[in-house]
Amino acid sequence: MDHTAVLTAYDHQLRRDARSEGPGTRVERVGGVVRQTGSEHDWNGVLWADIEARTADDVIAEQVRHFTAAGREFEWKLHSYDRPADLAERLLAAGFAAEPPETVMVAETDGLPAGPELPEGIRLLPVTDAAGARLMAEAHLAAFGEGDAALSEQLGKRVLAQLTEAPDEIVAVVAMAGDRPVCGARMEFRPGTDFAGLWGGGTAPQWRGKGIYRATVAHRARIAVERGYRYLQVDASDDSRPILDRLGFTTLCTTTPYVYRP
Fold first, then answer.
1. Would you call the peptide bond into 116 cis, given omega within 30 degrees of 0 as the criterion?
2. Are 121 and 178 in contact (CB under 8 A)?
3. CA-CA distances (angstroms) from residue 203 to 185, 208, 238, 239?
4. pLDDT tens-digit series, residues 173-220
5. Which of 49, 158, 163, 171 could form a disulfide with 33 if both were Cys (CB 3.0 to 4.6 A apart)?
6. pTM of the full predicted structure?
7. Domain spans, the chain
8. Which is the CATH superfamily of the domain at 108-252?
9. 11 neighbors 196 (Cβ within 8 angstroms)
């Protein structure tokens, strides 16, 4: 894989030239940033920025005003190559809170292992309706606990909205142990790009280390190949990065979410 070429494609297709995630969101290019604004259940935030040090604080303040006026918490996705070099410090000074960094990883879809190879007692259930979206939320809760109850509810609403408004741009599955959801994973497509994005995959503690996440990656990779997407992209946590390494994913850069809560 040509690292420079893939990073350039990623930066242009998914950040600089990003398209709206759905009918309820809009993408704007204003003052050196690309931002998305949607409902409270959508992802709201700054996707890309290339700003000069002398204007950076004013640009940050403008994003705060914009999202605060809309009543939205929002995220500034800071990538390791974004400018200016001290943008992280400026965001913190403006009242943002840094969340754990993630590793942007990419793999060619046709080079990933076939699958899925599910552990005994687990089956993958396609998510296509409101009942499936509820199972996604329950799987998230099982993986991350009651402390993430609000995020679990938000996830279920977001998935249902995507299935309703843009069903061709999402594939979601729930790993079921009997009648209990133990892992939820989805893939979001960006028409006109080379990339399909993998999201979710958190697994209930008692089912970790058994290959469920790996199986969901293989399942989604097969669908991405069928739809003609060249690359899979993941914002990987420290837990999933070693698994993705073993599957053949390559690190492009790192990204840190900086969150502003009005």
1. yes
2. yes
3. 9, 6, 14, 11
4. 999 999 999 999 999 998 899 999 999 999 999 999 999 999 999 999
5. 49
6. 0.90
7. 3-103, 108-252
8. Gcn5-related N-acetyltransferase (GNAT) (3.40.630.30)
9. no
Q: What is the H or E stretch that residue 26 is in?
A: strand 26-30
pLDDT of residue 151: 85
Positive/negative CA dihedral, 190, 212, 254, 46: positive
Phi-psi region of 51 (alpha: psi -120 to 50; beta: other; left: phi over 0): beta
9: closest CA among 187, 256, 255, 252? 252
pLDDT digits (tens, 9 = 90+) for 89-145: 999 999 999 999 999 999 999 888 776 678 899 999 999 999 999 999 999 999 998
Could you give the CA distance from residue 79 to residue 103 in angstroms, rounded to a whole number?
10
- Is the distance from CB of 219 to CB of 173 less than 8 angstroms? yes
Q: What is the C-alpha separation between 223 and 234, in angstroms, rounded? A: 16
